[in-house]
Design a protein that fits this description.
mainly beta, M1 Pyruvate Kinase, Domain 3, three-stranded antiparallel β-sheet, 19 strands
């Protein structure tokens, strides 16, 4: 791709990873990307001991307070390094480390459900029973709320996670500040902040830019910084998670309603890693042609 034409479309303004699926994550100034996405992202997840399903805030009826848990890896993580322990801050401020033998007990007590903290790295899952770590595959659940004006069903459906991962779909999620600004204009009462949409990479297309900029990237290859190349594979459809309380962000069904009305329920795009490497806050983002 060294001889390809590259068109500048903005800069990285923030980077995020979520060490435990559906818990609050951590912002980074520098991130490593491998074929499995941002290193350390969704590296851990809680598995329901009663049915083997992976816990997700997509089903808040079953898991009503996952966003009240904060997760952070305890040391820097390189693409080839062993997965470090994760430190989880419970809603009451108690710290739980995956290194401790009583971590599952502490998490189960806080969630009022029996759970196991499982881990995945390089497509191999540990901490749960399976026929082999690389073949482990699980399901999760999603609640579809009954919101006025939306064709949702007030029901829960089941979906499969990609084999050997704790992702719902793709391994990388990008979002622009232009999209957030436009949605804010459509619904001024709402708070369209980055944390509500849980992206990995946030791109600023430029001062004052508003619009669903990511839609034009689908099917394109993006170069980020000096090393990373991503294929933009499709739009990121949104769900009930965007309406839930997160930190000081209030519960707000109007957020999802606005997204459905103005961009077919999509905010941001999914991507697959073509070439991994290091990305940094401030790196330029370019479309490769």
């Amino acid at each position: 791709m060294s001889n390809a034409t590259q068109t500048d479309i903005g800069a990285v303004v923030s980077l995020w990873r979520y060490p435990v699926k559906s818990m609050m994550g951590e912002e980074q100034s520098t991130a490593q990307l491998s074929n499995h996405g941002l290193v350390g992202d969704r590296a851990y997840a809680l598995v329901d001991s009663s049915d083997g399903k992976v816990a997700t805030a997509k089903n808040p009826r079953k898991w009503p307070n996952l966003f009240a848990f904060q997760a952070a890896l305890v040391e820097p993580l390189g693409s080839d390094a062993p997965l470090p322990p994760v430190r989880i801050t419970l809603p009451d401020g108690t710290l739980v480390s995956s290194e401790k033998s009583d971590s599952n007990q502490a998490l189960s007590k806080a969630l009022k459900r029996q759970v196991t903290l499982a881990a995945t790295q390089h497509g191999q899952v540990t901490g749960v029973q399976s026929s082999g770590p690389a073949s482990w595959k699980a399901n999760s659940e999603e609640y579809w709320p009954d919101i006025d004006g939306l064709n949702y069903r007030d029901t829960v459906t089941e979906f499969a996670l990609p084999t050997g991962t704790f992702f719902d779909c793709a391994t990388v999620h990008l979002l622009t500040t232009a999209t957030l600004s436009l949605l804010q204009d459509f619904y001024p009462q709402g708070r369209f902040e980055v944390q509500r949409f849980r992206p990995n990479i946030v791109v600023d297309p430029g001062v004052g830019e508003k619009g669903f900029a990511e839609n034009a990237w689908i099917g394109q290859t993006l170069a980020i910084g000096d090393e990373v190349h991503l294929n933009i594979t499709g739009p990121c459809g949104r769900c009930v998670m965007t309406t839930l309380t997160q930190g000081d962000l209030p519960k707000d069904s109007g957020v999802l309603r606005t997204v459905v009305q103005h961009n077919q329920g999509n905010v941001g795009v999914y991507a697959a890693v073509v070439r991994g490497g290091t990305i940094r806050r401030g790196d330029r983002v370019k479309v490769v042609a």
